Amino acid sequence: MDHQGTAEERFRALHESTFADLLRFVERRVPPDEAEDIVSTVYLTAWRRHTELPEDARPWLFAVARRTMANQTRGWLRRRALDVRLTATEQHEVPDGSSGTAARLDLQRAWRSLSAADREVLALVAFDGLTSDQAATVLSIRRSTFTMRLARARQRLQAALEPVPPRTLQELS
Amino acid sequence: MNDLEELAVLDPARHNEPTDAQWNRSRAFVERTMASAPASRPRWLAAGAVTVAAAALGVAGAVVVPALFPGATQQAIASWTAVPTARTGDQVLDQAKTCGKSDVEGSSTQVRPSDVILAEQRGDATMIIMRKTNGHIVECLGVGDAGFASMGLTDGTPLPPPPAGKLTLETRSSYGDGDDMFSNIIGLADPGVTSIELRLNDGGTIQASVKDGWWGAWWPGPEGGEGTDEFTVTAHTATGKTTYLPSEMP
User: Is the pLDDT of residue B70 over 90?
Assistant: First the structure.
């Protein structure tokens, strides 16, 4: 097999092993009808950079996807984070009285109270299943910086889940 | 179950699997991409006295080029300007003829001003992107009408155009040695791109040239050939801008 054939076979194998994860990564962050175009752009970039691809290519692909989405998302530069969607059905979910549903709604409320930057850091681990090393690659930051951001985001998530004391009328003096 | 595991219930894509149609579309896109885009990028190669100190990135099958004449590099770097002056084909016809005569990608039998796609002047140095008689596109860089370095960019096969308002990167490299080292970057630009600037991590800003679907710049220093992202590229359009790290440019 010549070099070109080897490169093409390797790239096909990369596509087969990463497409589903990459599509999910993008679908979490942009409307579904835009996701496939983003993913195509990522593979176009990857092919043109295939000699530079690291052995663990998935975070590299996610990083390219993140930047591609960021460049197409108005307002990203203000937030400096790429926000993660919640599904539309969850926005309108009605409690059915079960403890599981109530806990989930609490979690949703806590999630929405966080900043976009906190949500992005948490999502890279909780949704995308990345290690801190991989997530740091996606964000182009040092691992220690990511670990610090993740710890702070988790603290703020926990704080948002703490029960809030009921509001009561204050006696006027 | 910890807090991160609990969060997974909010994942909007946790049950998503690509459909057969999505797999088919993506596989077909990958095949088209590999068929239409070269697996390697061109680069400068020295055939003379000048040493390649830092090779171009991600390249194979590079094109042999004549070396920049000794002394021309120093003159080019000494007179370099961050903002180029655009030149027409008529204005650089002598340099274009020199470029056309070189055997990089085949010699041109005749060179006309209309063969010049993009030309810029930075101090004493002229950079040209031009089409040869056989349709191949080359870049030439030099001082005056002699001492050109040259690099093949395409073999005449149309390259996939960038999306609206976006850029591609065809090649980046550095060339030379020590104080004579310079960097070079060339790519395609959608017609909606009105201007392009490079920002080096050390704070320097370089205005690139953009014309007729191509963009390019050169500057003193090694950044173009380094594997890390030592600069950013920003493409401006009438409605906004897009900033790239070189490693992430398609």
Answer: no
| Candidates B2, B19, B26, partner chain A, best to mutate (most A CBs within 10 A) | B26
* Position A54 in a domain: yes
Q: Across the interface, do B12 and A87 touch by the CB < 8 Å criterion?
A: yes
CATH of the domain at B136: 2.60.40.10
Please indicate, yes or no, if residue A80 is contained in any of the structural domains. Answer: no
ipTM field: 0.81
CB contact set of B101 (below 8 Å; sequence gap of 6+): B107, B108, B111
Give the one of B8, B11, B18 whose C-beta lies nearest to A23's C-beta: B18
User: For B175-203, what is each residue's pLDDT tens digit?
Assistant: 766 677 788 889 999 999 999 999 998 88
Q: Using a CB-CB distance cutoff of 8 angstroms, which residues of chain B are in contact with residue A108? A: 10
* Domain assignment present for A86: no
Q: Does B11 touch chain A (CB under 8 A)?
A: yes
Half-sphere exposure of B18 (CA within 13 A, CB side): 23
- DSSP H stretches of helix in A49-98: 57-72, 76-79, 88-91
Q: Which of residues 164-223 of B touch A (CB under 8 A)?
A: 168-169
> Is residue A71 very low, low, confident or very high in pLDDT (cuts 50, 70, 90)?
low
Round to whole Å and give the CA distance between B31 and B26.
Answer: 9
Q: Decide if B68 is inside a domain.
A: yes
Nearest to B3 among A39, A123, A157 (CB): A157
What is the number of domains present in chain A? 1
Q: Which CATH number does the domain housing residue A107 bear?
A: 1.20.140.160
Residue B76 tokens read as 């080019």
Answer yes or no: is A44 within a domain. Answer: yes
